[in-house]
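In this notation, each integer encodes one residue's backbone shape. One such record reads:

___
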Amino acid sequence: MDLNNIIRSAALVVIGLPLTGAVFLGVADTVNETGAERGITQLKAELTVPCVQWSAAKPDSGLENSAEVAIREVMGDKGVDYKGLCGWVL
């Protein structure tokens, strides 16, 4: 073996091992996720865009109203605490 091959192999191990570990841990977290955690993740995903819109909108604007309608469609309630809910989502 020559020095170039040794250096190349060492570089692959130094770069590849942490990357492989990160990918494995990410997949393991997804596999070990409980049903409740999946539900929370899905709920937050559904509410992210409407909450960003609501947070960025001017009070009593069309954007705020449409975001509130979208949030109520997901939550199914007219008494939603938009500030608290969007604070949790974002």
Remarks:
- The mean pLDDT is 80.
- Residues 34-90 form one domain.
- The chain has two domains: 1-32, 34-90.
